[in-house]
Design goal:
Layout: E1 14-18, H1 33-44, E2 51-53, E3 56-63, E4 66-73, H2 80-91, E5 98-104, E6 112-115, H3 124-133, E7 139-144, H4 155-159, H5 168-186, H6 190-197
Parallel strand pairs: 1-4, 1-5, 5-7
Antiparallel strand pairs: 2-3, 3-4, 6-7
Helix pairs in contact: 1-5, 2-3, 5-6
């Protein structure tokens, strides 16, 4: 009872996870919008994700007075839950202390959809996280990367493809909005974030 929370091995108030695939091959692809957003978050809060631990690149940031662990899983998308579950177990974090930022192929490019919890929505990274943590009570910010050009277009080829040059400004604004929404969510204002940024 004489110890503050932060003295117990360095506890965190929040785990913020950006989903993507590691390696130059996947940089700036639709599936990596979570990584792209986390990089912007790292930049704004001077918290580079440079430490390799728990199968992730990690950084630490104070956002709205809360101590946050920034995470870019290096497991490849389909196994993202391995990294997230390890971190949650080590730091004794509840699902309510986790925020995931990911791509959504059902939303137009640049649109945001913030949710408190829910199903994986067909996203393999989110599916892995829900399965390995045993909970879907995890907040998420979904960023629209656009629908497939036509129904027969291969989904893997679409999400692993790069954005069109004309999407640049829209995506830039979406990433900025996702970072602002993250700050609100960490500060306990998810309703405000949903009202302000859900498109």
């Amino acid at each position: 009872m004489f110890f503050k929370k932060e003295d117990k091995g360095g506890s965190f108030d929040y785990l913020i996870v950006g989903l993507g695939n590691p390696g130059d091959k996947y940089e700036k692809t639709r599936h990596n919008i979570g990584f792209i957003t986390l990089d912007e978050l790292s930049k704004q809060f001077s918290a580079p994700t440079a430490r390799l631990k728990f199968k992730s690149l990690l950084g630490e940031a104070t956002i709205g007075g809360k101590r946050c662990l920034l995470c870019k899983p290096q497991t490849f998308m389909n196994n993202s839950g391995e990294a997230v579950a390890e971190i949650m177990n080590f730091y004794k974090l509840s699902p309510e202390q986790v925020l995931v930022i990911l791509d959504d192929v059902t939303l137009d490019v640049g649109r945001l959809r913030i949710r408190r919890k829910g199903s994986d929505g067909g996203h393999n990274g989110m599916k892995s996280i829900i399965y390995l943590t045993g909970s879907d009570n995890i907040a998420r910010i979904k960023i629209g990367v656009g629908k497939k050009p036509h129904p027969d277009y291969d989904l893997a080829a679409w999400v692993l493809g790069r954005f069109r040059a004309e999407d640049g400004e829209t995506l830039y604004n979406a990433v900025k909005n996702a970072v602002a929404a993250t700050a609100l969510i960490v500060g306990g204002e998810i309703d405000k974030a949903m009202c302000q940024y859900n498109g």
